Amino acid sequence: NVIGMVFPAGKSFADDTWGAVLTWSADGYVSDDDAHKIDYPGLLNTLREGEDQGNRARQEAGYPAIHLVGWAQQPTYDAARHSMIWAKELSFSDLPNGPNTLNYDVRVLGRRGVFSMNMVTGMDKLAETRAAATDLMNTATFNPGARYADYVEGKDQKAAYGLAGLVAGGAVLAVAKKAGLIGILLLVFKKGAFFLLAGAGAAFAWLRNLFGGKRSADQRPAYASDAAYDPAAPDPGLAPVPQDPGPAAGDDADDRNKPI
Length: 260
Fold this sequence. Notes:
Elements: E1 2-6, E2 19-25, H1 40-49, H2 51-60, E3 66-78, E4 83-92, E5 101-109, E6 114-122, H3 126-139, H4 163-168, H5 170-179, H6 182-185, H7 200-210, H8 253-256
Antiparallel strand pairs: 1-2, 2-6, 3-4, 4-5, 5-6
């Protein structure tokens, strides 16, 4: 499911800054068994080999061709947090003289799916975007019972891809197929196309619960306008969260297992 977007405080898609598209994919448990076996230079070449087919689809839909210049940050996996982060440098056919685009990806793995943040901006914002991505990644947690460590072999659904497939786009492709958003389907976003998605206000309201409840103004990350933050609003994130016994009959398993 596409949840929405996040921007730095006081900014929007019209400003020269990063924007993060937030998605949740209930593809199942993504095994990290291949964490130390992935050939990232080889994976980069594989992604480049698929450019022609992808660009044909983009151009037929009225979008410019996109070329993968290389890793802006090679993929790294944090085994303790069960999170993965990487970045690609992209060029667009309608901007032959640049500037190139930074596509920065964060994935946080859970028992039944993947929480994704896809951040887009210019390559000149790499350091700023890396810091923001690390901050967001480090604050995302799952309900007890829905954490990566809570996976039950033989009982829970397992994703059809591992970490290499995650980088290649497995979770995002699954979300895009349901959402019908060609920008997500093709794994890249270009500044100016953000109107396809929900606004930052709704995204921040969800993030406030996602990241564990209320924070004072000097504690919370400045990733949405202050107007979107209501310190007096009831916050379900403050309530104790019971152990998850698994979906009951009639429950929506996707909603029950999203990160909080």
